[in-house]
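Hi R.,

Here's the chain you asked about this morning:
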Amino acid sequence: MPRDALIIEDDDATREALAVLLEVRGFHTRTAHDLETAREALATGHAFDLVLTDLGLPDGDGLNLLPTLVALPNEPAVIVLTGESSLERAVEAMRIGATDFLTKPLDAVRLDIALIRTMQALDARDERTRLRRALKDAGRFHGLIGRSPAMRQVFERVEKAAPTELPVYIKGDSGTGKELLAQAVHRLSRRSKGPFIAVNCGGIPRQLAESELFGHEQGAFTGAMRRHEGAFERAKGGTLFLDELTEMPIDLQVLLLRVLEARTFQRVGGRQEIPTDVRVIAASNRNLEHAVRDGILREDIFFRLHVMPITMPLLRDRGADVLMLAEHFFEEAGPDDTGRVPTLSGAARAALLAHPWPGNVRELRNAILRGAVLCKDGVVSPEDLGLRYTPSDHRNTPANIHNRASEGLAPGTLVLPPATTVAEAERLLIRAALERHHFNRTAAAKELGLSVKTLYNRCRAMPDLADESRDPT
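And the predicted structure, written out as tokens:
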């Protein structure tokens, strides 16, 4: 199939010569003599396979167009044209994402070699695209699994966000797979060959958090026996994933903002400004706007990082993805002593589909691994899964509690079967309040008319709510 090329060059003779050479190679060409005309051509939405651009144009620097070109969804090849005296700018263009450069005056042989390389790269791009579509159709997408509409939306969002250098913010409840999503963005980005460094902002003691992010010099504090490279330094050329961003102390957020703006940092105990080259992906199970309102997150950090938001759906909203994930986790567990990979009984499949999954994918994985160990004759029963909820509980999951109009009930109504015990009713009320307030114990306790301490003790006394007792709020 013929490929399309855009030539951006202000010299008429060079522009026409390039058009002839590219058409001989099978390209359909379109030309532009300045940045304005080039932007008009790109604004049509036409997917150019190749862009050749001069860096010195009448109305501006062609280098300024590079970020737009390399971020186009169809991943075009970009060749820059530069004079002999501007090689350092060609190197800068390659750093941004250009695939090749040619020096002026142009050499026909050198151009032909560059075009052959470019066509090979485009063939490889098309093969990657074909494989990516096949994997998406099969429900497997760079570590993410699912065919539900909710997950297909996630896949589309990742494909749009990954090629850019924009910060990505991932929202999702605990256990939905936010780090897997971050890794998928990294794998599809131009930084995929660089490191992926994950930092749990809520899992680091405050006195060590600054050192973990920015590193420290030898002797910076008691116990600093040698220089330590922080996450920003270790992630150079790659992606830094800041999980549970809203748990980062406010004073540390001030330092983070400086790094995001200046692209430099200092190790603890050091004076040298160290440049950083990372893409930041942040995640939280909290609503960032609410976190800003409550004083947990700085507003300027919000505007810096909430650029490309992606939401990981709850497992209970993903339908039959539960069974796909279960099969994946059985494969992960491997065969039993007889060499068989366990399978689900019909009753177990029904139980998985009916379960509300408050712990999301993490809870499902644990249930499947447990079932693989406890099952008999390679067939997993509902009892082997050890689920703590019964199918009747599904009526009282947050999705149903907040959407009861179809049953003639007011939104927020909690339905209790006639045989419900007082203890069970209390458990459901507490869980509903916690989930309604995103597991913020202070807000849930206020709604229930309890002290925070009392709510904490009640959660600890209930096996399926024990994990919520660890919530920091």
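The first strand starts at residue 3 and ends at 8.

Let me know if you need anything else.
M.
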